[in-house]
Design a protein that fits this description.
Keywords: Cell outer membrane, Membrane, Signal. This protein is α+β, with helices and mostly antiparallel strands. Helices cover 16% and strands 44% of the residues. Among the domains are: 156 residues, Beta Complex (Ferric Hydroxamate Uptake Protein, Chain A, domain 1); 163 residues, no CATH class. The chain is globular.
Length: 918
Amino acid sequence: MHRYGKSTLLALTAIWVWQIPSAMAQDEDGQEQPADNSADAEAAVPPGDEGDIVVYGTRLKGQLIIDQPPLAEYDEADIAAFGAGSIADLIDAIEPATSSGARGGRGGGRPVFLINGIRVSSSREFRSYPPEAVAKVEVFAEEVAQRFGYSPDQRVVNIVLKPNFQSLTVEVEYEQPGSGGYSASEQEATWLRIGEKGRLNFNVEAQDRSLLTEAERGLVLTDIPGEAQFRSLVSDTMSLQAEGNYTRAFMDSGSSISLNGTIGHDESRSLSGLAIDGATPLERRGETDSYSAGLTFNKPLGAWDATFTNDSNHTRSLTEIDRNDASGFDTARSRTYTTSNKLTLNGFPLQLPAGELSTTLDLGLDWTRLESEDSRADSDISLTRRGLNGGLTVTAPIARRGDPLGVIGDISLTATGGFENLSDFGTLANWSLGANWSPFENLNLSATRIYREVAPSLANLGNPRIDEFNSTVFDYRSGETVLATVVTGGNPDLVAETQNDWKFSANWELPFWENSRLSADYGINRSRDVTSSPSFSSAFEQAFPDRVTRDSDGELLAIDRRPLTLYETRSRILSFGFNTRGQIGKAPERTERRGPPSAGGQAAAQAPPGEQGGGFDPARMQAVREVFCNTPEGETPDLSQIPEAFRARLLDENGNPDPAKIAAARERFCGEEAQERSERFAAMRTAICADPPNLDALPEEMLARLRNEDGEIDPERLKTLRERMCSADAAAAGESGQQGRRGGGGRMARMMGGGGNEDTRPRYFLGFNHNIVLENEVLLSENGPLFDQIDGFVLGGGAVPRHSSRLQGGIFWQGYGFRLSGQYVGGAVLRGGELPGSSDLFFGDLATVDIRLFADLGEAFDKEDGFLKGLRVSAMMDNVFDARRRVTDENGVVPDAYEPFRIDPTGRYFGIEVRKAF
């Protein structure tokens, strides 16, 4: 962490004005909200120095300061362009950047999360927060997770929250397929308050979805009349959830504590056709209750930062399965208890020639218990696991630019070693070694070697057995679609897995396209004793014939899909990613407008050159200050002395002075912080704007920013700084401590008689990633056989495509937004074997496109008060072209089990959402 003295603070204040970064803007309710002035910031950066400016001028509290640059980052304006309803929705929207594809599916799902650079107990702590509370989102590569006590198999998302924020949001949503048949609805309310000393959040949510049957899609599989109406394609579900989150910061000690709790209830009902009597419907009913609690405690300990997290959960589930002989139903119950505790210490114990040695120590204690009961089993299952784990991560800088070795760029090494002692599996080891190299400022290369021993989960070991009758299955041996029983549950005979991986990455910030990054990952994965939940295929039956039951005529009766152990798996994956964001069109040129002279003095044009800075009138500003600061508290200032544009901001919807807004303006003009800020700014501005500039009066840190590679003051940088600090906008910003709203050029400056054209250009974002599977093989024993899953000999899942892609893009302009999501899955094959009558299956390419249109009506209609303020209406359409994957056998015929409406009964999907923020 950087520590600054008084001179540095003065430099930061000047650079703050130089770049026009985010500052606090007062809204119509008197609340303070950070404003996004990224356009101004970008315009203020001198040529050739964009990278360092970010460090000194625009870094927000809570951003990560590490060697590896982010794979993607999004500021406040970018986040608004997504049109998300919560942070959870926001994370879904940026999935192309957060998904990890280069480690063959190890993790590969949702990333790990930090809030303001601090590890959290779980995503429950923040997932319901409105996106308006977020100042910035950063996405980092998997290796960064090691610095926070995580394993390097998922990307890291750091969410930087605004320091002051409050809102109540209410959201209702209705959805249904274009073909009808069922519908879904959601209602959610969220309250959040973020203040100087902490944050408080409450959220309640309800979801409901109706049943869809085969009859409603015209599917007929058997000759039994009317059975299709008793076979479901989409289950009937209902869920309720309530959660609360509380965070408190202790300013004196620098500590913070976060508490969260969640209660959830879920119900589901599905139909499996008719019993053997041909008249009794077969239902499967599920009910789940979950209780979760979490704790995060963060405290500085000298030069170290300590973070303790606890995540505890209890889940009870009940499944009732009607018997196929219509004699009643069987029950499967499970109860799980989990608690995960982790202590991490982050510090910089040594100063090396190239920088500080970064060290992370972590120690964890986990406990899990699974209890399951099955009315068809002879005995119940009870499994308990205690896990003690620890690790050490060290990152050592080897070379830095400017040092003797810096000619080759920045280089650092990261080493990790750890253990996990499990009560049922003994001690498991893990280690990794990685190198990070930045030969140029905009290019980062890394290589990591990872070794891990992993035990199967208790769920895989001890889940209760569930038999799903009359499941639709394609029998490769006969080439026919049949109804068979599918068995799922746990397997107590699983063993620990050993993983050996390599990962190579490149991250290039494009020099010709601002705010754009291209990334590439290459992963090599080798694993022994892999736990796998198989699917049914000819390769599966060949490898595990005891898992498939047939009658004497060879007709398929049942499939056992409980987890099993594969001897070895091998995979290689190449992934590419591209992320960009920005504004369309040329930035408007900044102009200066002169307001009428104020009651307190003459216009700035009469002031001596170099002192007033391009039209800023200090007499006018002083007159405004006197109106607020000389009026006793509790009394209403004489607003007739205030410029009209500013006066309108202080009135309520009836045109009367608003006490809350006046109090906020008084604090901004008359508070101690405002006075100190004004004095610091005035001193630096006087030095910069003098003719010639008085450079001796500037802090050394600021002078360093003005020097070129030869150590001399760069005239162009000095000119850029003078233009920024001596302009009307910069002066008003420095004097008032206030900036314009999103994309603005300084609202307060314009109100005070300054200038600047508001930037109303459309904002865009685009994220894309593409995965290429180069190898995916399974070896059943040391001597074979070997199954090439890309070639269709699949054991552990559905068909394995070689190519897959995800796309997220959108545009936002003056309150109106458009977001497009795309997914692509390449063609694949499943081999049917060599027996007579068997058939291969060919899976065609599938590309789907989703769109979301939304309008923030308050911004669209420029309504900053009244009902339209904070009101957003969204319309969405998933799978716009109603695309479904086509699956055919060797004769080009679509099997019944793969009819388009069976594999995707939803297709094109519509939804409308109304969201109101108070």
